[in-house]
Design goal:
disordered C terminus; about 375 residues; three-stranded antiparallel β-sheet; Spore Coat Polysaccharide Biosynthesis Protein SpsA, Chain A; 8 helices; alpha+beta; 19 strands; eight-stranded mixed β-sheet
C-alpha cells in the first residue's frame, strides 16, 4: 500500500512553505552549497541557503529532487517572543468548563499580559484514537529505572517497591496523549514564517507569583537548538547542566502540566509517533535518548492545583501500583460513574504503599508523584 506523500519545508524568500509536519518527513543529511555563485546572490544568501536532497515517500518508489532550503532546516532559528506575543492554549474537556474557568482566573492573576485560549481536549472515553498515534498498553521498565534514580537522589529507602510490568493505558491517558499530539500540530499550523513557539497548559495549571519574571529570563537564555521548555515538572534524574540560575537542561522529568514547544520540536515529536506510554513518560524518554533537547525553568513556575492524580480527569494506569488503599479520586467518576476496571490493580498480597515527598525543595514537592 502506498504511503502518504511526505511534504518538505523549503524557503521561498522569507517564507517557509509548506510547514513540514507530515508523517514520514525526511530531509537527507547531505547538505551542499548552492551552485549559483554570482556576487549579488552570494551577498544576499550567504550563510542562509543550502542545497539538500528531499525524498517524497510513495511506497516502493521514491522521488528525489534538490531544493534550496533555509539553514533553519538544519538548525532552526528560535523565536523568543515577548509574553504579549506568546500564544498559549489550555487543554480542557468540553464537560469541564469549571476547570477552564479556574485556570483562566489563575493565569490572569499571575500573568495578565499572556493571552490564553481554550483548546478542546480529546476525550478518551468518546473520541476515536488511532493506534498509529497512541497505543493501548505500555511497559513500565524505563519509567521504573528513573523512579529508582529519583529515589536514590532523594534518599528514599524504597528501591524494592519498584517493579516493571506491562500495563493497559487508561482512556484518559490515551485522550491526554492525543490532546498533546493535536497541540503539536496546532503549533505547526500557527507557527507562521518565524518558527513561533506555543505554550501548552493543562487546565489544572497553577502559576507561581514570579511566573512572568522567571519565564522571560528563561526564554532569553534558551539555547538556539532547543525544542522544549518545561514550566512545570517532577524531576527524576539529575540535571544535565545549568545554563543560568533560572534554566537547566533536562534529562528525564514527569508531567505535562505546562511547557513551551517550538516548531522544530513539534516536527520531531510528530515523526516519532505512536506514543507508546503516558505522554509525559514518552517525552521524557525522547529527551533521555537525546532525540529532543528540553530545558526546565528553575524553580518550576507552574504547579498543579491538586496532588498527583487527585480530582484529575485522567485516570493513570499505574495508580494502583502503589496499593489499593490510596485516597485517589477522579472527577471522571462524577460524569461517567465509578470505574470497576481492575485490569492494572495489584494482587491482594501486594504490600506496596503510596509514598510522597514532603520536602520543601521547589523542584520536588508533595504535589509530585513519580
Amino acid at each position: 500500500m502506498p504511503t502518504t506523500t511526505s511534504m518538505r519545508m523549503h524557503l521561498a524568500g522569507d517564507e517557509l512553505i509548506p510547514r513540514s509536519h507530515a508523517i514520514g518527513m525526511h530531509v537527507s543529511s547531505v547538505v551542499t552549497p548552492l551552485t549559483n555563485n554570482s556576487k549579488k546572490t552570494m551577498k544576499r544568501q550567504r550563510g542562509r541557503l543550502a542545497e539538500v536532497e528531499v525524498v517524497f515517500d510513495e511506497g516502493p518508489r521514491c522521488r528525489r529532487r534538490k531544493t534550496s532550503v533555509c539553514a533553519a532546516v538544519r538548525a532552526p532559528l528560535m523565536l523568543k517572543p515577548a509574553l504579549t506575543d506568546l500564544k498559549a492554549i489550555v487543554i480542557n474537556l468540553e464537560r469541564r468548563p469549571d476547570r477552564m474557568d479556574g485556570c483562566t482566573a489563575r493565569m490572569v492573576k499571575h500573568s495578565p499580559e499572556l493571552c490564553c485560549e481554550r483548546f478542546r481536549a480529546t476525550d478518551g472515553k468518546k473520541d476515536a484514537i488511532r493506534l498509529s498515534e497512541v497505543t493501548t498498553s505500555w511497559h513500565t521498565a524505563r519509567n521504573v529505572h528513573y523512579q529508582k534514580l529519583r529515589a536514590i537522589r532523594k534518599g528514599w529507602d524504597d528501591l524494592d517497591t519498584y517493579q516493571a510490568r506491562q500495563l493497559v493505558m487508561s482512556p484518559g491517558e490515551r485522550g491526554c496523549a492525543m490532546s498533546h499530539i493535536r497541540a503539536w500540530r496546532y503549533c505547526l499550523d500557527h507557527a507562521g514564517t518565524m518558527e513561533r513557539p506555543l505554550m501548552v497548559l493543562e487546565d489544572d495549571a497553577a502559576p507561581v507569583d514570579d511566573f512572568s519574571k522567571i519565564l522571560v529570563r528563561s526564554m532569553n537564555a534558551m539555547p538556539e537548538d532547543s525544542h522544549m521548555l518545561y514550566l512545570g515538572y517532577s524531576q527524576a534524574s539529575e540535571w544535565r547542566r545549568e545554563v543560568t540560575p533560572d534554566l537547566v537542561e533536562s534529562d528525564y522529568v514527569w508531567t505535562t502540566v505546562g511547557y513551551i514547544i517550538w516548531p522544530a520540536g513539534a516536527r520531531i515529536l510528530l515523526n516519532r509517533l505512536p506514543i507508546d506510554q503516558p505522554v509525559d513518560n514518552w517525552l521524557a524518554t525522547l529527551c533521555a535518548n537525546h532525540e529532543i533537547k528540553a530545558y526546565c525553568t528553575r524553580p518550576k513556575i507552574i504547579r498543579q492545583v491538586d496532588a498527583w492524580n487527585v480530582n484529575s480527569d485522567v485516570a493513570h494506569s499505574d495508580e494502583h501500583y502503589w496499593g489499593p488503599c490510596s485516597d485517589i479520586r477522579h472527577s471522571d467518576d462524577f460524569y461517567w460513574g465509578a470505574s470497576q476496571d481492575k485490569t492494572n490493580k495489584p494482587a491482594a498480597d501486594d504490600k506496596r504503599v503510596f509514598c510522597v515527598d514532603d520536602s520543601e525543595n521547589s523542584e520536588d514537592d508533595a504535589w509530585d508523584r513519580s
